[in-house]
Amino acid sequence: MNETTTLTVLPRPFLKWAGGKTQLIQQYKPLFPPHFKNYYEPFLGGGAVFFYLFQAHSSGFNAVLSDINEELINLYRCVHNDVEALIKELQFHQSKHNSEYYYQIRAKKNRQRVKKAARIIYLNKTCFNGLYRENSKGEFNVPIGRYKNPTICNAELLRADSQALQSVKLEIRDFDKVLDEAKTDQDFVYFDPPYYPLSNTSQFTSYSRYNFNEEDQIRLRDVFNELANRGVKVMLSNSDCPFIRKLYQDFQIHQVSAARSINSKGSHRGKISEVVVTSY
Asked: Which InterPro entries match (predicted)?
């Protein structure tokens, strides 16, 4: 699977994603299982864990990456299948970028798959704080950011990520569908759901019209438990709070320290404790 020696740029996330795990990889490294043949990531987001594992496992593995967000999976499929067409669209956005153009693209919906994918990257690279957010109608509603010269098209990174994704299966589906495939100790599942809010005023638990409530957290715990009972290696990230610690009290709970880099208020950014739960 891995052919990173042929790449001039190593694969890494091409999106700035709220709750992305790039900054936490060093703390996660000792928690990853050393051996597995099949990898599943049902809350794909920016894909930082997958891209790290791709680099780290020279022997390779099969991967199924999924998310309920249709536009996100369409984007990954375009990086996989149509990276040169995607790069061309992004270069066009780069040449046209200004405030008026930003709001024109933000208001526009495209049906053509590559144009839809390019729109997400363009908005992600130029919007305020790189915050992906949709309203209840599924409309992107973040204002333009204050960037003098944003890098909208990183062609070499997109090509590297396209190569990393070549043998990957990309699916639009709910997280519980992983039960249909992950069944043995050769399987590794990593869950990175929307985090349980630390307070009643927490707003950053959902970045799209797909809400993730307390019942979903409990349903996720049940899926985690079922996978663990099968012998599947399971790892999960979430907020460090009594509710989550109680849900996973029968498993290994590890504490990590994360920096909140995406928040609408600067005073709310900084170090915060999170937990990583493992079944092994």
From this structure: Ade_MeTrfase_dom_2, DNA_methylase_N6_adenine_CS, M_m6A_EcoRV, MeTrfase_D12, SAM-dependent_MTases_sf
